[in-house]
TrEMBL record:
GO molecular function, one term: monooxygenase activity
Residue ranges of every copy of the ABM domain listed in the record: 2-90
Highest taxon of source: Bacteria
UniProt protein name: Antibiotic biosynthesis monooxygenase
Keyword set, alphabetical order: Monooxygenase, Oxidoreductase
Record Pfam families: ABM
InterPro entries: ABM_dom, Dimeric_a/b-barrel, Heme-degrading_MO
Family matches, as SUPFAM superfamilies: Dimeric alpha+beta barrel
Length: 101
């Protein structure tokens, strides 16, 4: 299994806005071959820190998604958030190979 975490930090008063955006997400990733799960995580001590957690069958499945037109479409939409505080957010992305369960 392969895991990708993308963490952003937003002003705390904007956390609920970002959560709502993800609750209403396009779900295009859900259709990708090898996709297993999506979770949006909120740091319990820093409410403005949110992490998108994606699980994939393999690194290759993730790479196929990351090179797809659907991936480009989703990330193009993110550049057009109507809220200026959210528009310029740059996530910190970490990728992991699951080596034991």
């Amino acid at each position: 299994m392969f895991v990708v975490d993308s963490t952003v930090v937003v002003p705390e008063h904007k956390a609920d806005d970002l959560i709502q955006i993800y609750r209403n997400r396009s779900r295009l990733v859900d259709e990708a071959e090898g996709f297993l799960s999506f979770q949006l995580l909120q740091n319990d001590r820093k409410p403005g820190e949110l992490t998108v957690h994606l699980e994939w069958e393999s690194k290759q499945a993730y790479l196929n998604w990351a090179r797809s037109e659907q991936f480009k479409k989703i990330h193009e939409l993110e550049k057009h958030y109507p809220d200026e505080d959210l528009k310029g957010i740059v996530p910190i992305v970490k990728k992991y190979e699951v080596v034991a369960t």
